[in-house]
Amino acid sequence: MRRISRITVAGAATASLALALTACGGTSTSANAESKEDKGLAIAYDVGGKGDQSFNDAAYAGLEKAKKEFGYKTADVEPTEGETDADKEQRLVSLAKQGYNPVIGVGYAYASAVKGAAEKFPDTTFGIVDDATIEADNVADLVFSEEQASYLAGVAAAKATKTKTVGFIGGVDIPLIHKFQAGFEQGVKDTDPKVKVISQYLTQTAEEGGFSSPDKGKAAAGGQIEKKADVVYAAAGLSGQGVIEAAAANKVWAIGVDSDQYKQEALAKYKDSILTSAMKDVAKAVYNLAKSVEEGKPETGIVRGDLKTGEVSLSNSNPKFAENAEIQEAIANAKEKIVNGEIKVKSS
C-alpha cells in the first residue's frame, strides 16, 4: 500500500495538462478530485532535459523502473529556457499538489526550489540529485562520490594515452564539477606523473549553455586534441556529446560520464571511440527513493552512493577496455585502495 493517499485531477489526460491547469490557476484539484492511491514518482529535469544520453536520462530510467514495478502513474517534466528558482519551485509544488510522491528535482539547481516546496508540502517526500545542502525531515539529498569514479577514469586515461597528454572538459565551473576534475587529475598523476592534464570549463554558469551545448563541447575537445590530448574526459551533460563526436572524428579516446555512454543509442556511431564511462547510478538512487516511499519508510537526509556501495563505477562495455589486462589490473588495484581508505580522493 502507498503510505500517503494521493489526489487525481479529474479529466486530466496527461500529467502535462494537469500541470498546466495548476500553473494557470485552472480547475481546482480539491473541487474536482477523489482520493486515490495511484500516483507515485515525479521528476523535474535538469538543464539539457530528457535525451541528454547522460544525467537526465539516468533519472528517467529510475522513474521507468518504479513505474513498471509499482504500477502507478508517474510524471517527468522538462525545464524551460531562462527559468527562475520560483519557476522551478512552482513546478515541484504543482506536482506535489497533484498527489505525486516522491517528487525529485534532478540537479543541484533545484536546491532552492526543493527547499521551498518541501516546506509547503511536509507530508510529501522530496528528493534532489547532486545537492547536500537541504536539511529537512521530508527531503532526501541524493549525492554521489563522483571524484572516486573520476579517479578511476584518470587511471584508465593515464594507461591508455600514447601522447602523454589527456584532457578534462567540465560543463560549468561549479563545485560539483570540480569533484570530477579533481578526481580525474589525481588518478592520472598517481598512475603516471609524466602525463599532462589539460583542464578547462565551457562556461561559468549553466545559463550560458555549459551543460546543453554539444557545439561548445566539440570545439573545446578539438582544441585539446590539437594540443596532443588523445584521451578526453567530459563532465558536461549534453555538451559531452560534442566531445565524444570530436574524439571519434580525430580517432582518439573519449571517456563518457554518468551513464554508460557506449550503450547509448544516440551515440552508437561513435561508440568505438568511447573507452569507458565514469558512471553514477542516478537511476538506482531515484528508484530507491521511490521504493522507500512505497514501503512507508521514506529516505531522508544525505543518501550517498560511492565505490563501496557500487553506485559509482567505470563501465566495461567496450571490449578494447574490458579486455586490456594492464588497464583492468590498475583500475582494480586503485578501486581496492580507495574502498579500504588507503587512497583518499580529493574532491576539489
Your description of this structure?
- InterPro entries: BMP_lipoprotein, Peripla_BP_I, PnrA-like.
- Its main location: membrane.
- Belongs to the BMP lipoprotein family.
- It is a lipid-anchor.
- Pfam families: Bmp (PF02608).
- It is a single chain.
- By secondary structure, this protein is an alpha/beta fold.
- The protein has two domains: 136 residues, Rossmann fold (3-Layer(aba) Sandwich), CATH 3.40.50; 157 residues, Response regulator (Rossmann fold, 3-Layer(aba) Sandwich).
- It has eleven helices and 14 strands.
- The strands form three sheets. It has a six-stranded parallel sheet with strand order 4-3-5-6-7-13, with helices on both faces.
- Strand 3, helix 2 and strand 4 form a beta-alpha-beta unit.
- The radius of gyration is 21 Å and the shape is globular.
**What is the CATH superfamily classification of the largest domain?**
Response regulator
Q: What low-confidence regions span 5 or more consecutive residues with pLDDT below 50?
A: 1-36
Q: Helices and strands: which structural class? A: alpha/beta
How many domains? The number is 2
Helix content: 25-40%
As for the CATH topology of the largest domain, it is Rossmann fold
The gross shape turns out to be globular
The end-to-end distance, rounded to whole angstroms, is 44 Å
Q: In the CATH hierarchy, what is the architecture of the largest domain at level 2?
A: 3-Layer(aba) Sandwich
Output the radius of gyration. Answer: 21 Å
Number of helices: 11
Total number of beta strands: 14
Order of helices and strands: EHEEHEHEHEEHEHEHEHEEHEEHH
- Rounded mean pLDDT is 89
Kindly provide the name of the CATH class of the largest domain: Alpha Beta
